[in-house]
Amino acid sequence: MKYVPVTARRDLRTLGRQFATQRKLLKLRVADVAQRAGVSQSTVANLEHGKAVGSDALLSIARILQLADYMVQSADPYSHTLGIVRSTENLPKRVR
User: Fold this and answer.
1) Using N-to-C axis directions, what is the helix angle for 30-37 and 55-64, rounded to 10°?
2) Distance between CA atoms of 38 and 36, rounded to whole angstroms?
3) Phi then psi for 79, rounded to 5 degrees?
4) Which of 43, 44, 46, 64 could disulfide-pair with 51, CB 3.0 to 4.6 Å?
5) How far apart are CA 37 and CA 54, in angstroms?
6) 47 and 58 in contact (C-beta within 8 Å)?
7) Which of 70, 74, 38 is nearest to 57 (CA)?
8) Cβ-Cβ contacts under 8 Å for 14 (sequence gap 6 or more)
9) How big is the chain by its Cα radius of gyration, in Å?
């Protein structure tokens, strides 16, 4: 079994609960989400139970649940304090 840090497991469980809640608010069944996202029902269930799924499946499911735009926006480094502070600096081509 692959090692997953405790904090990542906790975040997966939280994300799973949030996805399940959103699905229920949209009055969708697991089967509906799976079919629309092009994934298996077990993938949707695994995500909702806090198990790791592929990033492509995660984003496909998030798109069906109307959460993908929020996820993508929250990953924008310039929407966070550090990115805003350093936005005038030139980014290195690579970090060593």
Assistant:
1) 110
2) 6
3) -100, 5
4) 46
5) 13
6) yes
7) 38
8) 50
9) 16
CA distance 17 to 13: 6
Rounded CA-CA distance 93/96 in Å is 10
Cα(67)–Cα(51) distance, integer angstroms: 18
Write the DSSP symbol of residue 78. Answer: G
CA dist 21 and 53 (Å) reads: 18
- In whole angstroms, give the CA distance from residue 52 to residue 9: 9
Question: Which residue's entry shows tokens 């949209």?
Answer: 26
pLDDT value, residue 1: 61
Tokens of 16: 């799973």
